[in-house]
Amino acid sequence: MSRLQKWWNGNWSIPVTAGILILLSFGVEHLAGGTWNSVVGPQWWIDAGEHAHGSGHAFTLANLLMLAAAVIAGYNIVIKAVRALTVRLISIDLLVSIAAIGAVLIGNFWEAAAVTTLFAIGHALEAATMNKTRSALAALVAVAPDSAVVVRDGKQTEIPAHQVRMGEIVLIKNGAKVPVDGQVVAGTGAVDEASITGESIPVEKAKSDQVFAGTVSRGGFLQVLATGVGADTTLARIIHRVEEAQDAKAKTQAFIDRFSTWYTPGVMVLALLAGLITQDVVLALTLLVIGCPGALVISIPVAIVAGIGRAARNGILIKGGEYLETSAKISAVAVDKTGTLTEGRPQLTDVVVLDPSLDRTAVLRWAAAAEAGSEHPLALPILESAREEGVGPSGFPGDVTPVAGKGIVSTVDGQRVLIGNAPLLEQYEVVDERGAGEAAHTLAAAGKTPMIIAVDESVIGVIGVADQIRTDAPEMVSRLHSAGVEKVVMLTGDTRLVAEAIGRATGIDEIHASMLPEDKLDAVAQMQREGHTVAMVGDGVNDAPALATADIGVAMGAAGSAVAVETADIALMGDNLLKLPESVSLAKRTVSVMKQNIVIALATVLALLIGVFAGGVTMSMGMLVHEGSVLIVILNAMRLMRNDVHSTAMPKTARTPNTPHSTHERNTLAS
């Protein structure tokens, strides 16, 4: 297709052609007096020309050019109006069509050309704006890789990206786009994941790390095992979700659509009554034109598309317009602790020796030997620390028995080893004569998870384990408050002491500790009964009931998680906590723009109506002002595409130590 053909099939060919004809009409009239000496058409047509031109001349060349402009600009408008009528829909196009045809019939060729051309310009502006506001989606599509280098039969083979098979080894070289979702099996490198997570800082990748299709290698060489190809990649799911979200209607938009179905016929009735009462056809036609709710109709969708597109560009997926609107009303945010406020990877912080005949190494050896047969995440930091100090267990305990809510009982070298809390000691009738309870309380008050260790009938020590608080957690809470969130609530299965330590460190407003999943659901429901619009941030597994009950469910670090991308109301693709307040702020700004646009649209129509009845507002002037209001609405919505000062990309590498994670929590499956 040539450039000329492409332009002719574009949005601007009709309004530009009509505009040229209008200018030619003015030029002919100015240079040649506007006279075309031949009489053309039936008498009513000639009379129309005379009526329009105010002279005795026959139908003029200037009028013919003006009529041609009206026909070219109005043809598609009339077609759309007729198509709408076939499905019993009275559209805005019908108002313009009746007004333009009526203007032609009474000889107001300039008015007909001006109205249809300005309306066509408005349509072109709307189309161009929607394309612009969908730029985030276009950018996502653009980063989709075209080719991939795979290892087949021991050789490097370049193939189209969609032909990569699951389980194949894909080679990622410096500067290349990653064509699949996969796991690094060899090599190291830095990958720019901005297209997925919105983070601008490249992420170092090594063996066992995950990579995503559409990201770009910024150095190094990676061999990747393909685990997601084609439509199963994270990028494909994001594109699909953004596409659906931008088309989904908000409640306000649905209301405007219903309003328009009554408003448009109302304008037609008003114009008819005004014409009958005043016997002024021009007044009636003018009312049809200025009553067009074009700016009102576009005011909501253009803001929604811009807002959702802006969020997607920053690694925030919002499911649709309805959820965008709801997010603007969020007044309470409930957050899970582990994996949200904390990194979810606890580390051994303390070993308190209570048996004078043992040292730190011996206590750690007993703890590691007992935990060697445990599948719980808290066992891992103990085992890792023991291996680092050279006292890691060489085998497995003879028997491991978990005790719900208390800890575990193991058999090591024929001796019984308890590791857990004070109630575990009581259950097995072990007397605490060495102050283990006090030591455990001290560790818990400091925000650490205490575990008492007893061998046979004797307490030998207490170890402390702590998760890592994210350094951006306090900033997240602060920014949520700045965004208008009244309270941030922690819902955790941890003990009260441990939870309070996190609350002090992060500035959490309200703490609910020792909670089971059903307790979290009740807490969310209670906040809703108090009148709050609640957002719940969690891992989507143990927090599933609370996430489903909340007004907005938020998934953190959803990149690579098909379930989170598809089911969460808001999916934060990266692991950056500051994306949460950013999403709330963006939702509030978007809704604010929607309200501003509605006011602009309605105020314009009201002012024009007053102007028509007061005199001085012509049909063409009314359409000009009307299209001006459409442009203002569009420009107002486009502000959402600009970078916001609160849009912050913060790497997740920096952490604050000593975040609690209690023995109780390991058994409640609540966090």
Task: Describe the fold and architecture.
- There is one protein chain.
- By secondary structure, the protein is of the alpha+beta class.
- The chain has four domains: 3-133, no CATH class; 142-232, Distorted Sandwich (Calcium-transporting ATPase, cytoplasmic transduction domain A), CATH 2.70.150; 314-343 and 471-583 and 651-662, HAD superfamily/HAD-like (Rossmann fold); 347-468, Calcium-transporting ATPase, cytoplasmic domain N.
- Helices cover 51% and strands 18% of the residues.
- The chain has 26 helices and 21 strands.
- The strands form three sheets. Strands 1, 2, 3, 4, 5, 6 and 7 form a seven-stranded antiparallel sheet that branches. A seven-stranded mixed sheet has the order 8-20-19-18-9-16-17, sandwiched between helices.
Mean pLDDT: 79
What is the CATH superfamily label of the largest domain?
Answer: HAD superfamily/HAD-like
| Rg over C-alpha atoms, rounded to the nearest angstrom | 35 Å
CATH class of the largest domain: Alpha Beta
* Overall body shape: elongated
Beta-strand residue fraction: 15-25%
Count of alpha and pi helical runs:
26
The N- and C-terminal alpha carbons lie at a distance of 59 Å
What is the percent of helical residues?
A: 40-55%
Number of domains as seen in the coordinates? 4
Largest sheet: 7 strands, antiparallel
Beta strands, count: 21
Structural class by secondary-structure content: alpha+beta
Low-confidence spans: 34-58, 648-671
Named CATH architecture of the largest domain: 3-Layer(aba) Sandwich
CATH topology group of the largest domain: Rossmann fold
